User: What shape does this take?
Amino acid sequence: MSLRIEEPGLFSTIQDLGRVGHMRIGVPPSGALDPLALRAANAVLGNAADEAALEMCRLGVTVTVQAESIRFALTGAEGPATLDDLPIAFWRSHTARRGQVIALGRLRGGAAYLAARGGFALAPVMGSRSTYTRAGIGGFQGRRLAAGDVLPLRLHEAPEARERTLPHPVPADRARPLRVILGPQAEMFTDAAMRTLLTEAYEVTRDADRIGLRLRGAPLQHLGRREIVSDGNTTGCIQVPGDGQPIALLPDRQSVGGYAKIATVITADLHRLGQAVPGSLLRFEAVAPEQAEAALWQLERAATQTFAAIREL
Assistant: This one.
């Protein structure tokens, strides 16, 4: 009862909602680039919200089913998807039988998820099944997936049930700038740099992975010294090295860093940051902490309502 990887894509790993409580020993949370999409896949299948799934970055996988049957769902950045060469849709469940082939092509975004009913039979490390490749822990042997890997499933066959679908993805205003809270080292930048961050567009370069996104645009000038005594990093913080070109950090980022941080993307927008790909243009908008908290509550309300509207086909 497994899925065999035939084509592994560009960078495919097992991820859940992340590893909590180990930053003090240098272990970042890892976890899904788009946690909202992961939760949606699990909601469609009736899994726990934090069940681990297969995350695919920019290019999907091809897998062969080696179980009596599997119920699965695809969410996140959409792209061409087939079951035995027949097109299948995202944001709903499907059932595949032994020997059938699930294939995904190039994605129209940063990350997509293939979740299975019951999840993958993989042992947690530090409370999470998320893969952190730099330390070789979690997921499947602590690494990105390769052709020939066999991912064990918890269920031998899919339980008898009708397929289910989301009415639509969780509402998200993807056209608006990414909202940020300024700082924690905003005082280390010129007033012109702060204005530039909030008025100019920054392009995601090819130097982009699960650690972070190097951006290219108008340089952000420091006011005096350019580095700090290393302090804690968080997913979404925007570091600015000496060249003035910002780096937006993602779930596999280092736990500490010595570059000054000009701003931090709010939690409610991290799923949008995680879907950025090389060539994407990012804009930023400053909000107050109270607005960031309200935005998260609004997102959670929308997610709850959307998941409650899942219906049988």
